[in-house]
Amino acid sequence: MHGRFTIEGFGRHVPERVLTNADLEAIVDTSDDWITTRTGIKERHIAAPGETSSDLAVVAARNALAQAGRTAQDLTHIFYATFTPDAVCPPASSILQEKLGIQGRSAVDMNAACSGFLYALEAGMGALALRPGSTALITASEITTCRTNWADRGTCVLFGDGAGAVILSDKEPKPGQAVIKDIITKSDGSLWPLLTVKAGGSGWPLKLGEQVKEDYFIEMNGPEVYKNAVRSMGQVCEEIVTRNGLAMDDVDLFIPHQANLRIIEAVGKRLKFTGDRVMVTVDRYGNTSAASVAIALSDAVSEGRVKSGSTVLLTTFGGGFTWGAAILKFI
CB under 8 Å to 167, separation ≥6 — which residues? Predict the structure, then answer.
């Protein structure tokens, strides 16, 4: 990579309302034991009526700015990862810019499904390389529950709402900040039918008066998603660690996409990460899609899971299929 890319601040925000597995028992044919055994999820945060993706993102952004000792006026770019924007148009990034009280900045939405945060992070690095001296807000925010079919027990138990954010610059890092050592993003469009939210797109347009159907919500071939997620995240982690002259033993904390505990454990086993070396937040947030890794990273910092000199490996996987990995070094 060319140039220095510093994460100055980390932030996250989740809605106040908590939906437990016991609560779900009253909604769909399921049980706490069934959910916990298969996913590791105990609860998730759910947006209040009228609460939007940008409402969550603005709080996460302000938290990241505060930790970085920055204000919104310092921002030159906003990269906003989501598959659940406030509206099809305008972009959620423009709405977020207005809520931050700034104008005239570059702002763009990015949809790489659950891999969105790493894709947006890489785009932010590109902006800094092209425009040295820039400061970018990288945020990922989802109201996944607006696209959750509460009659489908195979998917409705998995998802939650939340937002994560980081402040990215090319400045010399300070203690508590992190340098991005490398990043890889990948995709395989041949597998897109395995994980979809189709209705409302140009290929599946909605018609006035038409009843909402199953394809408006998240539809997933669980076994195939599991198989591809474990393989793809494992391979990309091995690739990025090797090309940076590292070994898995050099990684102090592994932060994978928080889809479900079985996937986390399977990838960790392949890479020989166990115990405290693996960051797990899926039990309390569920799968927050693009926000997943960003929230987990912010929690890792606030909980003291990283310290000066820590090497952190991030990886993610989502619809598309998309996937990726990044290596951070904390100062």
Answer: 7, 8, 9, 64, 65, 67, 68, 70, 135, 136, 137, 138
